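Issue 218. Parser rejects a valid record. Input:
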Amino acid sequence: MVHPEQAHELRTAYGDNLDAMLKSAGVELFSNARIDAGTAYALQAGQVGTVGFESPLAKQAAEADGGKPSDIAAAAKRAGFEVTDSDTYTRLVAEATEGRRLKAAAAKAKVEASVDDAISKGKITPARKKHWVILISADPGMGEVLASVPNETAVPLSEVGHGQTGGDDLVESAEWFR
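Output the parser choked on:
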């Protein structure tokens, strides 16, 4: 059980893999605004503890203040919540989802650009591109490792030599050769 802020940070860090990570650890994620930010509790079902039931915030506000919308909004504010309409909420969720998608696409493009740069400098062969993209995506520190590889390590790009000596040192020039 964690504060909603930490639940959000976990969702941001793990993205679509959060459920798989929690399942592999054999735990479920619960958040509660009453827990101090930065605090987490590990709870085990079926053990000694206390059980408490919360009544909905709207019901509490209605019972305490007469149930006017402004009273409900005030009660939500006191509890640390912001009241919004469902259209705004839906739009915010869609924009956040799009933002995560764009951030992931930009990160992928950056990784691919660094790998393409390494290929163009002869640090790695084109056949290893997919390997390095996966490697850097899993561990961003590997991007620094790839950047530190000397140019032309895998593929020489500089001219090594040619068949011309540069001088006219033929013993006897042939007419047809000139």
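Fixed in the parser; the record now loads. The mean pLDDT is 81.
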